[in-house]
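Quick one, tokens below. Sequence please?
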């Protein structure tokens, strides 16, 4: 079978939600008012830490698809003041979040044990206001959440090949700025991080054969598999990967913005930044190349994301190994597209209704396990009860 990215169709039930006149949908969707609707119509569980488990009304997959959002919409009204990545989440909240992640991921592995039959992934995205400042809705997208998704590989195999030039699929490999111009610097920087559970993947060993993705992204095998996710050490290393990425990204675009700029404030690994980046000719040469292009190419400069933009996820490869990867999200691709899955959502209430009972049964079982572990209380909606 030909390997390549796939485009699948996922039906959904149209949401009877009115966007106020004069607002764009993406300006409204993370407002406090919309979060109220999300809780009351799709909420599954919430806890005192502000973490909300919910059904994805506009989902990626109707096999299994849920998210946890750090709902600070009522406690932090300034969208630009909300946490947008794991490193900004208070430790007590992160502890609860990590336990929720572990339980949900374990459930997915239990329900879908065959790596040849199902693609399993979980991860989160940067929701910084990193798009051009003139884009509509930039501030209101800030609400940290993660995704838990399962795809049927038979359905993927039967799906048509996606356009390889789709901008959302050009985040890794030869298309990525980091991979194309300073791949060795990037990898060597990550190699200096203190990792024991996460082991760098050999080139190509982590790809999904059906799609050929991920492409060109640094990836790590989780030694110990699902059991490792029960260890505090794993989640610390998961954060270490993110912190290293943030240091690299902020340092690089600091140099793009201002020649010979000082080290960014509050970097996580200052010695590593000084020795491996600010004294590296390839790193600084690439920054000069991007800076020069920004000066002469207004369109290119306007597309730059000056603040860190990323997708970080855990997924299961074809051999059943758990893999961690992180993307330099320069384009804006969905989290599934890192693995070569393009989702085209279509409104089709009847098709969604056929999948809904099995989907809800799985989501409610996950909720039961989380409640049992004292990770929250169930939410009643018109579609299900609190218990």
């Amino acid at each position: 079978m030909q390997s390549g990215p796939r485009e699948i169709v996922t039906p959904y039930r149209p949401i009877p939600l009115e966007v106020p006149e004069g607002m764009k949908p993406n300006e409204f969707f993370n407002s406090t008012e919309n979060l109220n609707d999300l809780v009351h119509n799709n909420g599954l569980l919430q806890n005192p830490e502000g973490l909300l488990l919910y059904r994805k009304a506009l989902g990626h997959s109707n096999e299994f698809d849920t998210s946890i959002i750090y709902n600070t919409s009522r406690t932090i009204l300034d969208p630009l003041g909300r946490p947008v990545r794991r490193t900004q989440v208070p430790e007590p909240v992160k502890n609860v979040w990590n336990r929720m992640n572990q339980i949900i991921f374990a459930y997915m592995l239990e329900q879908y044990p065959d790596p040849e039959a199902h693609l399993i992934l979980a991860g989160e995205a940067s929701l910084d206001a990193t798009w051009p400042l003139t884009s509509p809705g930039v501030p209101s997208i800030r609400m940290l959440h993660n995704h838990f998704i399962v795809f049927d590989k038979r359905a993927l195999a039967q799906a048509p090949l996606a356009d390889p030039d789709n901008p959302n699929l050009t985040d890794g490999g030869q298309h990525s700025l980091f991979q194309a111009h300073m791949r060795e610097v990037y990898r060597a920087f990550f190699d200096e991080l203190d990792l024991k559970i996460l082991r760098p993947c050999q080139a190509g060993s982590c790809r999904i054969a059906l799609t050929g993705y991920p492409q060109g992204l640094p990836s790590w095998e989780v030694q110990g598999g699902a059991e490792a996710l029960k260890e505090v050490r794993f989640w610390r290393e998961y954060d270490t990967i993110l912190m290293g990425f943030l240091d690299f990204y902020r340092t690089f675009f600091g140099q793009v913005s201002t020649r010979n700029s000082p080290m960014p404030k509050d970097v996580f690994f200052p010695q590593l930044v000084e020795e491996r980046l600010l004294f590296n000719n390839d790193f600084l040469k690439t920054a000069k190349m991007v800076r020069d292009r920004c000066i002469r190419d207004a369109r290119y400069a306007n597309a730059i994301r000056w603040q860190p933009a990323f997708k970080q996820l855990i997924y299961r490869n074809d051999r059943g190994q758990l893999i961690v990867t992180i993307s330099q999200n320069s384009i804006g691709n969905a989290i599934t597209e890192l693995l070569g899955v393009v989702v085209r959502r279509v409104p089709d209430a009847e098709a969604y209704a056929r999948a809904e009972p099995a989907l809800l049964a799985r989501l409610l079982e996950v909720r039961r396990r989380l409640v049992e572990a004292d990770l929250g209380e169930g939410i009643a909606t018109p579609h299900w009860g609190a218990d």
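The longest helix spans residues 232-257. The mean pLDDT is 89.
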